[in-house]
UniProtKB/TrEMBL annotation:
Protein name, as recorded: Methylaspartate mutase sigma subunit
Matching InterPro entries: Cobalamin-bd, Cobalamin-bd_sf
B12-binding domain sequence ranges: 18-156
Example GO molecular function: metal ion binding
SUPFAM superfamilies with a match to the protein in the record: Cobalamin (vitamin B12)-binding domain (SSF52242)
The organism of origin for this protein: Amycolatopsis tolypomycina
Length: 158
């Protein structure tokens, strides 16, 4: 149900349409449990989730973002190539005027040598990511970022 108004005691509970978040891996990465975890986490935050799965070609990421116009794109990578894949993908997405304002974040185990250096993180941010969540950070920082987006959570009006 996308929109619902129902009498509830003296007040009215309004459920605005839930916004969609795309969760995805990138072309080189075949790991999947990271995506299942993110799907559950983002769902808990009040969004509808479209999980594109593993080894997603850049073309598909682009077309899904253009057609669905999500509230956010969450990229995950754990195979160590996330820094490389992420730079390529974000440059492609940000080259499209329609996707310049789309919140896009990346997280996981992004480099082959443990945590990314400050310089590598800065490269990702400069290329267009709104946030980078290295494995060490945990879910707290991501939750706080997601809370800044307009979500589809239930609002109670008197
Ligand atoms: C299972 C597994 C596989 C399976 C995957 C099966 C499947 N269907 O998923 C198989 C055997 C296919 C595999 C293959 C490979 N793997 Co593997 N794999 C693992 C393993 C053992 C568990 C991963 C897992 O499922 N974890 C459970 C999920 C829930 O957690 P997670 O992935 O760690 O993600 C967490 C965080 O990273 C974070 N997170 C992830 N993404 C994001 C995004 C955001 C926005 C946020 C906020 C957080 C976040 O949240 C998650 C929960 O805490 C890990 C080692 C380990 N113990 O973690 C290695 C590991 C991920 N694999 C590794 C490697 C190197 C490979 C291979 C390259 C090996 C090879 N030489 O072929 C290939 C890569 C294949 C490819 N093309 O990507 C390395 C990566 C090292 C690195 N990053 O530097 C690891 C860490 C093993 C190691 N210690 O070396 N692998």
């Amino acid at each position: 149900m996308t929109e619902e108004l129902r009498a509830y005691g003296a007040g009215i509970v309004t459920e605005p349409p839930r916004r969609t978040v795309i969760v995805s891996s990138m072309a080189s990465d075949s790991h999947t449990w990271n995506l299942v975890y993110l799907e559950l986490l983002v769902g808990e935050l009040g969004f509808d989730v479209v999980n594109l799965g593993a080894c997603v070609p850049d073309e598909l990421l682009e077309s899904e973002c253009l057609s669905r116009r999500p509230a956010m794109l969450v990229l995950s990578s754990v195979n160590g190539h996330g820094h490389q894949d992420g730079l390529r993908v974000i440059r492609r997405l940000r080259a499209l005027p329609e996707l310049r304002g789309l919140p896009v974040v990346i997280g996981g185990k992004l480099g082959v040598g443990g945590a990314l250096t400050a310089e590598e993180t800065a490269q990702l941010l400069l290329a267009g990511f709104d946030a980078v969540f290295d494995d060490q950070q945990g879910a707290g920082a991501f939750r706080r970022f997601a809370a800044t987006l307009p979500a589809g959570v239930t609002q109670v009006e008197a």
